[in-house]
Amino acid sequence: MAERGRTQAGGGRRRGGFSLDVVLLAPIGEELSVLLHRELDRGRERWTVPYEAPLPGEALLEGAQRIARAALGAEPAWLEQVGAFADGRRHPAGTELSVGFVGVVPQDLALAVGDDLGWVAASALPAIPARQREIVRQGLDVVRVRLDHAPIAFSLLPPTFSLSDLQQMYELLLGRRLHKASFRRSLQAAELVEPIDEWRSEGRGRPAQLFRYAPSRKRKDRRAVRFDLLGG
Amino acid sequence: MAERGRTQAGGGRRRGGFSLDVVLLAPIGEELSVLLHRELDRGRERWTVPYEAPLPGEALLEGAQRIARAALGAEPAWLEQVGAFADGRRHPAGTELSVGFVGVVPQDLALAVGDDLGWVAASALPAIPARQREIVRQGLDVVRVRLDHAPIAFSLLPPTFSLSDLQQMYELLLGRRLHKASFRRSLQAAELVEPIDEWRSEGRGRPAQLFRYAPSRKRKDRRAVRFDLLGG
DNA sequence: GAAATAGTGTCTCTTAGACACTATTTC
DNA sequence: GAAATAGTGTCTAAGAGACACTATTTC
Which residues of A165-185 are buried (b: 16+ CB within 10 A; e: fewer)? Predict the structure, then answer.
């Protein structure tokens, strides 16, 4: 916790090394949001994706986890490499190379970030360094591609959830609406969730049955969930 | 051409930098093969994936192209980044970090490599440094994933080809058999090829009509080719 | 009752994959 | 004719997506 707000501590202007850049995504209200760090550069406010130099001997994923922990005070629920970026575009660390990561954070953990950090809707990012903008763009793509194969959406939900919760999470991450009946059929076919004997009422409307994530081990290469567009 | 056989020229033991590792794949006969470089290390023969240090100011893809050109004397037909690797495993450059690329090379270009280079079946690689083995493994995955969306198979064929040629190339790259009728239906739906008024006889059997790669511009996000298993 | 949300049944259309066939060549 | 390869027609099963419906709650 003491590390919070000092995300850039190790990210000097070391020309020889490289930076680790960590795009953290969280569902904030109805928006898929990105964690940005506010820096003051000669009196001007600048936003950056959290980054730092790697530590000697540290694996890339470990370093990305460390940077995420420094920013969040907690581990992201999922974290994966996006790639290496050295296109000559501007980066605040001054390094020629950056290795990008993307991770997701559940909303409750996301809300407890420090003063100089903020969640900004991915659809309305402020100006950030060009190389980092590319990392964010590709990071969003990585999440959307991986969504079918990794339990990213589940990791953002509490242990029990309704199928409407789950569908909304998928829709938020994908940035598009899904077809309700089809979503549920696919979920059933994928054997990913298990109903529990519990219902939750949101005030208005029929109470929703709750489920928990319980993937069937039988089919490993089976696609997780298949999606349809739009929906009633 | 003068560069050939000096692939490792820039790949010293610079702890501070990183290496660019280029996995080159080619269809050699019936085998999908990887280009390896033979080095002598204290009298022992060692095989490595071509690698070098990047040049200052050079974009990653440019560097990978340069390394491929040095090894092949030609550009690969397709080249894409695999990712960054710094897992602490062994790498001949001695760097902590490597950025991996994967590319493909048509057979005719592939056959003209120098003495200290050789094409080895991907299914039967010799011992290579652990980090490079991982880059090869992930590189093969990248090719297979991209095959649906990038004209990789076409880039490995001459301008005109039979549909059986094309299917065989897909099968080689994917490492599995495809279903003939389904392959052709998918190809038709994807509007990727155009028949030309020319046939080719292989000696035995009915002559095959020749086609050329002619993607329809209309549907950009349409999946390139959809595949089925096995086949008559 | 209306409004809101959860959940389902059924229809159509597309496609993967199997199967079996026809077509055209060399021997 | 047989063998080999190219190419196609049809059937089935699965799945996507639309549509409309039923079910259960609050107001």
Answer: bbbbbbbbbbeeebbeeebbe
